[in-house]
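Hi support team,

I'm opening this ticket because the web form for multi-chain structure prediction keeps timing out on my end. I have pasted the exact lines I submitted so you can reproduce it. The total is 792 residues across two entries, so I didn't expect it to be a heavy job. Is there a limit I'm missing, or should I split the entries? Thanks in advance, R.K.
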Amino acid sequence: MIKKFFKSRGVRKFLRSKMAIASLGVISVYALVALVVFAGAISLDDVTNRVGVERMPGFLQQPSRELRLQAVDLRLKAMESVARRGADSTPEEQRRMLNELSLFERQVPDEMLFDEYSTLVVSARQAYDNTGDAQLEVEDLADELVAISEELHEMKSEGASAEDISALKDEQKQMQVELASIMPELDSLIDIVEAKMLQIQPIPKGMSGTIYKLRLSLGTDAKGASIAMKGLYSVKIAFQIGLIVSLISVFLGSFLGAAAAFYGGWVDNAVMWLVSTLSSIPYLVLMAVLIVAFRGTIFDDAQKPGLALVPVYTAFCLTFWIGTCRVVRGEVMKIKELEYVQAATSIGFGKSYILIKHIIPNTLHIMFINFSLGFIGAIKSEVILSFLGLGVKGQPSWGIMIAHAKDDVSSFFFWEVLTATLFMFGLVLAFNIVSDALQDAFDPKHV
Amino acid sequence: MTDTKTTTRQEPILKIRNLTTRFRTDRGIVTAIDDVSFDVYPGETLGIVGESGCGKTVTSKSIMRLLPEHITIIDEKSSMEFEGINLATTSNGQMRKVRGNRIAMIFQEPMTSLNPVFTVGWQIDEALKYHTKLSRSQRRERSIEMLRLVEIPNPEQRINEYPHQLSGGMRQRVMIAMALCCEPDVLIADEPTTALDVTIQAQILDLMNGLKEKLDTAIILITHDLGVVAQVCDRVQVMYAGRVIESASVYDLFHTPRHPYTKALLESIPKAAKTRVKSARLPAIEGIVPSLWELPKGCRFQDRCSIATDHCIELEPDLITDENNRSVRCHTPITVNNAPVRENA
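Hello R.K., no limit was hit. The queue was backed up. Here is the completed structure from your submission:
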């Protein structure tokens, strides 16, 4: 059966398209991620917990000096409070405290003693304080440079003499050189602090090290949570919504369309009435109405994110089956006049049997194409709805990521928007290519 | 069915009486076939011939009740008696048991008569599963046997192929195999050879003839090709504008047509070179078939008839059956003067 499937004309034609194969590969990677997330590899806590400083850029961009200092300061404060509280406790208590300190995946090694830890923290604090002078100097210089450039601007507009201007310019140059010489000094001081921190809390090796790097790979959002994890977790949401909505709407659409075309009469009238009524309601409006309708029920609870998606499924399923229904209805109207349907009747089969066994299998190619189109449509609409605050609740999704990041974008922190967009772009593009290839391969008009 | 084939006149297996089928259309109700009556005997081939639109296919589909229900009216006085059941009034459930099992049908277009998404074997098997209680392996055996019967080479392999892998002639053979797999008593063949080329046509006709003898199936052959009729039919019925106008054995009809329309039809068949008068044009019947909306008051053939009289315009003739079991619907039928000696009848 499977062998026969791969030998069939449509499948062979489909497999000949390299782009389609590549896209299938991309989709299966996404599907794998969705499965892994679904299996519980990434929990909601992983996604919402702090993994570092707010708005940390991803690995392609060096974090600024301020951010590095901020990160060090954050860790140092946590470490110092443990060192203070644990000073008079029992060794077991101290160990427990150290274990709890496992801030952002990095843990205090098991073999490290509390005294050793305390001294290391103290020396780290000293190293951090050492950066203070350099920091101040840098700040002063920067302030002075700003003042000079303002002065220069003023002098120019007032028409001051050329000598004065060039003197000031020389001064500015001198300061820039000075700043440039201090900068590496400050950097190396920060390096020392970071090295000390690493000594206390080394970057874990092996699997957990990879996860640590992965978490920080795409930076952190405005709450210090990992953007990479949010993006990956959202793959699950996208697949969940895409699969459920497109499966239900394709089945609903094709069965109603086929029944309308095949039985005609009042069935056709009823289905077409539904189609024209529902298609006149934009799904955004429908969604808003459903949100109101579901308010206060179990489907409106951010604590139960799975149930909170029910209004989204309902709104999408109600509007998405219409396209499939129209196309399948047209196709069945054509097919039911073909002679093999009459031949089936002349063999003695009943009407419903002919519809299910003989006619619907002939519309399978339409179902395939509509399934993949519906999948993309559902994902895109989910993003729009979540951006508007109507869709996903209590868990991340690409739409929510974009919604949260919209203020950061103006200050050039693009990592969250970029991540959400790229994740979505990859999936939607792959699905578009696949559905195009499906269309080419299975549409009887393209031979 | 207990009768042997040697008796010439058995009980008819299918008795059609006064079959009148009307269609609801946007312009009102139109009568497609009017008062058609005939008998079908076991093991014989009845040909129904006529021009396009004369009601041949409507007749066959009325028997099978394949016409779209919501626009079709089969007149109350119609009766189609088949083994004590009146097919015109019986329930849909009863009809489903008759279809395929007792009366089967072959369609004109072999290219679209098989479902493209299933294998040939699956489609024969499905019919067997529906009508018989055979086991899976028995059904497979029977399918292969049926394909072999219709002379498909290498049936064990063909059974797993899809319709698009078969030629037109092959598909028609599969259709015949499907129609005959439950050994029906009556096989309705609606222009089974029209879409095929002449060689394949001859093969299919031979095949149907052979199968008729093997399985003792009655065949109703619907065609517009008089050559086909001459080749395979025992009796012929000529239809014109929804009415039967002449009915006779093949021999009688071809040698001594009594209705002017039949005569004109026969004259319009191209003759082989020897008997043809050189450079003579092939005679055609002038005029066109009257529209079913504007049927004339009298004989429906009056406009095109060379011997029509005032009487023909006033009054429509009845179908009159003579002592030789020939029927003709004409006021002035062509008389049979010196009937040729019937050798084989």
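A quick check on our side: The radius of gyration of chain B is 21 Å. Let us know if the file doesn't open in your viewer.
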